[in-house]
From TrEMBL:
Biological processes per GO annotation: carbon fixation
InterPro entries reported for this sequence: RuBisCO, RuBisCO_lsu_C, RuBisCO_lsu_C_sf, RuBisCO_lsu_fd_N, RuBisCO_lsu_N_sf
Coiled coil: none
Domain of life: Bacteria
Every Ribulose bisphosphate carboxylase large subunit C-terminal domain range: 130-409
Descriptive protein name: 2,3-diketo-5-methylthiopentyl-1-phosphate enolase
A Pfam cross-reference name: RuBisCO_large_N
Chain ranges of the Ribulose bisphosphate carboxylase large subunit ferrodoxin-like N-terminal domain: 16-119
Any one GO molecular function term: ribulose-bisphosphate carboxylase activity
Lineage of the organism: Bacteria, Bacillati, Bacillota, Bacilli, Lactobacillales
Record-stated family: Belongs to the RuBisCO large chain family.
Length: 410
């Protein structure tokens, strides 16, 4: 690698996005040359010199290698590459195309993080309501929110979903969402479902204090969002990975332009393809945390480290940090932990992550031996016990629903 291809981060202005990669290869003869090739491939160069590739073009629009940090094994490194934002807009589809495009097709390259300059952060919407907005809307100041995933997830008519939502709300659920598998099937049309669920919530006096995130994932998502809101939805849900970064961001930008503030639940369906490999793909903190937050997910789903989805404890904590810690003008999002959560896991999760979370259960509420009302009550009782610094097993002695849950799920 020639000297002139290296730059120092302190020598760059705020017109660069900095990508950090973990790179490992037993075939590449020189780590520095490999990083240089990645920088060229993803900007103004390629694997060989081409006509028109002038020093001036490379200087203005070429990516800059600002750090190569070899590891002791001699075949891996951490690399930091700065990409000029003159090459792409503050639009996630093009950000990902630039820093995670062809490069992630190579063996042994994992995108760990992306650092954005403030001038670009200001152009992303971030969550429209975020943690503070949702807390104000629901009137819940400090504790984690209780979340419920409607079960059975598919195969039932709107009336069944509505009855399940009402039961969870009566038990204390603050946020209720469709399963990611349920969108707009013939047996449960989206509009019929949102009208029926909201009517049931109103009947039990919970339509103002409980959010129902109806899954609007599908064609013409902006039109679907408008239709759901017109039908009475007080929250919406999208499978942002499956729907696409661009379509999801377009939806949030539309809502912001129209001054429509509605909480958006973001399901990470398909994210395992990003984070499950140790040597390839994209970190969980990035794919399930920072990037969904930037495109406007108020309540992004994150798998717990105690579940079956391969998230490590470190990945869970890092993702929570990416969603909740300050990021200039970008609002914090609720880390929504779901996937095998039940009352017996609440104490652990709260001690690990704190209170800025939504602790969400499907089977952990609807599988309670006494039904969904008791299931939601048990989850809330566990949360309140931790808030009062009482061990959950001690609190169970005074709460039948919690005691039943702990015994049922050990």
């Amino acid at each position: 690698m020639k000297f002139e291809t290296l730059k120092m981060a302190e020598g760059l202005n705020n017109e660069f996005v900095i990508a950090t990669y973990y790179m490992k290869s037993e075939k590449e003869p020189d780590l520095y040359d490999w990083v240089k090739l990645v920088a060229a491939d993803q900007s103004a160069g390629t694997w060989t010199h081409v006509e028109g590739e002038t020093p001036e073009v490379i200087a203005l629009y070429g990516a800059k290698v600002i750090g190569v940090y070899p590891m002791s094994d001699g075949i891996s490194c951490i690399a930091r590459v700065a990409f000029p934002i003159a090459n792409f807009p503050a639009y996630m589809a093009m950000v990902i195309s630039t820093v995670a495009g062809n490069v992630l097709a190579q063996d042994g390259i994992r995108l760990v993080d992306i650092e954005f300059p403030e001038v670009m952060l200001e152009q992303f919407t971030g969550p429209l309501m975020g943690v503070s907005g949702i807390r104000e809307l629901l009137g819940i100041k400090e504790r984690p929110l209780v979340g419920a995933i409607l079960k059975p997830c598919i195969g039932v008519p709107p009336e069944a979903s509505a009855a399940g939502a009402a039961k969870a709300a009566l038990g204390g659920a603050d946020v209720i969402k469709d399963d990611e598998l349920l969108s707009d099937p013939a047996y449960s049309p989206m509009i019929d479902r949102v009208k029926t669920v909201m009517a049931h919530l109103k009947e039990v006096g919970k339509d103002k204090s409980t959010l129902y995130a109806v899954n609007i994932t599908g064609q013409n998502v902006i039109e679907r969002a408008k239709a759901a809101i017109d039908a009475g939805a007080n929250s919406i849900m999208v499978n942002y990975n499956a729907l696409g970064w661009a379509a999801t961001e377009d939806l949030v930008r539309f809502l912001k332009k129209e001054n429509i503030k509605i909480p958006i639940f973001g399901h990470c369906a398909g994210a395992g393809a990003y984070y499950r490999s140790a040597n390839n793909g994209m970190s969980a903190a990035l794919s399930c945390g920072k990037l969904p937050r930037l495109i406007g997910m108020d309540m992004p789903l994150v798998y717990p480290d105690t579940g079956r989805f391969g998230t490590t404890t470190d990945e869970l904590v890092e993702t929570h940090s990416a969603l909740s810690t300050p990021m200039k003008s970008i609002e914090a999002a609720f880390t929504t932990v779901a996937g095998g959560v039940h009352p017996g896991s609440i104490e652990y999760l709260m001690n690990l992550l704190g209170n800025e979370t939504i602790l969400m259960a499907g089977g952990g509420i609807y599988g309670h031996p006494e039904g969904a009302v008791s299931g939601a009550k048990a989850l809330l009782q566990a949360i309140e016990a931790v808030m009062e610094e009482v061990p959950v097993v001690e609190a169970a002695k005074n709460h039948e629903e919690l005691d039943q849950a702990l015994k049922f799920w050990s």
